[in-house]
Amino acid sequence: MLGYEEDVDLSRIRVVASDMDFTLLADDKSMPEGMSERIEALDAAGVTFAAASGRPLYTLRSLFEGLHDKMAFVSDNGAAVVCRDEVVFKSLIDPKTVQELTDFSLSRGLIPTVCGLDACYVRSCDRAFDEVFRTFYYNIAYVDSLDHLGVEVNKFTLYLPEGNAVALCEELFRPAFGDRLSVTCGGPVWIDIMNYGVDKGTGLARLCEHLGVSTADAAAFGDTDNDVQMLELAGHSYLMANAESRMERHARFRAPSNNDRGVAVVVDRILEARRSALG
Q1: Identical fold at 2-90+199-278 and 95-195?
Q2: CA dist 247 → 20, 89, 170, 254, 266 (Å)
Q3: Tell me, which fold does domain 95-195 have in CATH?
Q4: By CB atoms within 10 Å of each CB, which of 14, 29, 247, 258 scores lowest?
């Protein structure tokens, strides 16, 4: 796999899309120092930075206060796309499907979370995992039952505290729902389910179309399964050094690890190339 220094023609890049956890954020969930200034500099150089995450829109917005008019969000693994405060796309799951997923999950003793546009709905009996949930969902509504919630839902997520998300995704959820829903892993403890055809790749494609930019001129950073489509789509794809080797076939370049602030390192190279091109 090529090192990030071997990527060339960075001056053509017009969109930079980055996953959050274990990609942009360090293991301690901290943002690279000076990231806000980098996003503003990218905007000034004609490049749109996009936070591309399984996290919901309201959580992502809170992490980038004061920057909403200078960047984009590909939230809920592509189920909602917002660019400079304009809603570009949203995909809502049919309520009957949400109920089917709920029944299927609970009958197997799993922990579902129902992701609405404004809040995440979790059973009160699962409040013991509140600290974990609040890392990703900044607005949680604890309810006695998830049956027939009557809210707009764009993502259904399973929390697997035993770390067996990949196995359950392949052995249970993809066979049951993969022919009509988009099923992916957001790391070892999360399974994310969206409408069919919804993923970070289609989210990035919709953002690029909105901006009038070719995906060949997009850069993408990621580390795990729910980043695959985005990495395969972008003309400049970077896999973090902390990612598992099985992910190498989905990207062209290796970036420094999340703890070594690999996204910021490459963004600085992109900024330098853009500034040189603009004179």
Answers
A1: no
A2: 17, 28, 16, 11, 19
A3: 3.30.1240
A4: 29
CB atoms within 10 A of CB 57: 23
CB 219 within 8 A of CB 261: no
Domain boundaries, the chain: 2-90+199-278, 95-195
Cα dihedral 215→57→225→95 (10° resolution):
-110
Tokens of 179: 């022919």
CATH of the domain spanning 2-90+199-278, picked from 3.60.21.10, 3.40.50.1000, 1.20.1340.10, 3.40.50.150: 3.40.50.1000
Each residue's pLDDT tens digit in the chain (279 positions)? 999 999 988 999 999 999 999 999 999 999 999 999 999 999 999 999 999 999 999 999 999 999 999 999 999 999 999 999 999 999 999 999 999 999 999 999 999 999 988 899 999 999 999 999 999 999 999 999 999 999 999 999 999 999 999 999 999 999 999 999 999 998 899 999 999 999 999 999 999 999 999 999 999 999 999 999 999 999 999 999 999 999 999 999 999 999 999 999 999 999 999 998 887
Q: Which residue has the tokens 């690890």?
A: 257
Determine the Cα–Cα distance for residues 66 and 30; give it in Å rounded to an integer: 17
What CA–CA distance (Å, rounded) separates 104 from 99? 8
Q: Name the CA radius of gyration of the chain, rounded.
A: 18
Q: Using the structure block, give the residue that is written with the tokens 């790391």.
A: 187
